[in-house]
Amino acid sequence: MLKGVVNEGKFEVTELLYKEMIRRRIEVDMYTFNIVINGLCKAGKLNKAKDVMEDMKVRGIIPNVVTYNTLIDGYCKRGGDGKMYKADAFLREMVEQGVSPNERTYNTLIDGFCKDDNVGAAMKLFKEMRFQGMRPDIVTFNSLINGLFGDGKVDEALGLRAEMLRLGLEPNIRTYNVLINGFSKMKMFREAKELFDDVMKQGLDFNVLTFNTVIDAHCKASKMEEAVALRELMSNKLICPNISTYNCLLGGYYREGNIEAAKKLLEEMEEKSVRADVVTYNIRIDAMCKRGESRRSVRLLDEMSEKGLIPSHVTYNTLMAGYCQEGNPKVAVTIRKRMEKEGKQPNVVTYNVLIKGFCQKDKLGEANAFLNEMLEKGLVPNRTTYDIIREEMIEKGFVPDIDGHLYNDVVNC
Prior knowledge:
By secondary structure, the protein is an all-alpha fold. 73% of the residues lie in helices and 0% in strands.
């Protein structure tokens, strides 16, 4: 029953069943605890999952490698807010407890640190993994190559690819997707296209993600004709374009100001029953705001709600930025209230938008109030925040009334 409800994603039922077992004094074993911990991790209830592991220890059951791997995976998937370091702490704990980590333990942590933009920590684990006598597999290399490209370390990423080949590991479609995406992010479009063509010659089966990656790269390079040709090639290979394909093309058309082509693409989506997602609406709202049509773009926000789509922080922040750019930060505050009413709390980007918007209207006192509100909520200012404070406040002769440590950081940055 426990395994069944976890597999079906009924995590609340998992907790109820576990409590029922304890209440009825039904004997629980390692298998029981691991299933419950897995369910709690999938539900994002990491603290409860950790508490269940402590229950195991109290009952004299020593957590095994599956227990630790499950918890590590749970923390890695959540990422941010120091969760990766907690995941790493579980690795140290399991070693202290005499539980040997396996390849999955390291692969999970390496992938987690790469996705958390901490490729340095991932590389340390890679070295540690090899020191322990474990053989990295294709999953390990794919994560690290992706992380290194994301960190701008192209030579190191290509060095790992060469090492992977030396070890006799054959690249899979994920490897090629990672490399093509990496080249594209670094604006190395020639290399991305050459690799794509090379794989085509090898006769490997590309998937929709591969095509989307190359199409997106061409769109960002303002090569819309080539992007459209690639979309046609997809169809020839019987690979159906998905919503991400259309989003890439839509973003490309809007970036080059081709509103008519974007409109036709939206009509095509409608004809082919390709359902717009949150990203589609974010792209459209951003384009309208940049054209000074923030007021009209609010209709798209209403349309999202009608279609059962939940706007993201990007949706609301884009709208707020649009109103601020049009010199109307008070309406941006109204959008912020709507965001909160609909269940989204402001993040650092929200406050950056509002602070800058009020500063540009010379309402520095109100901007200062938003800065203090952000700090009171425990949100950590980022580089953009400091730049706004320096350029829009301090350089205009306004000293923000905030904590001394932040002021010193601003002055010294």
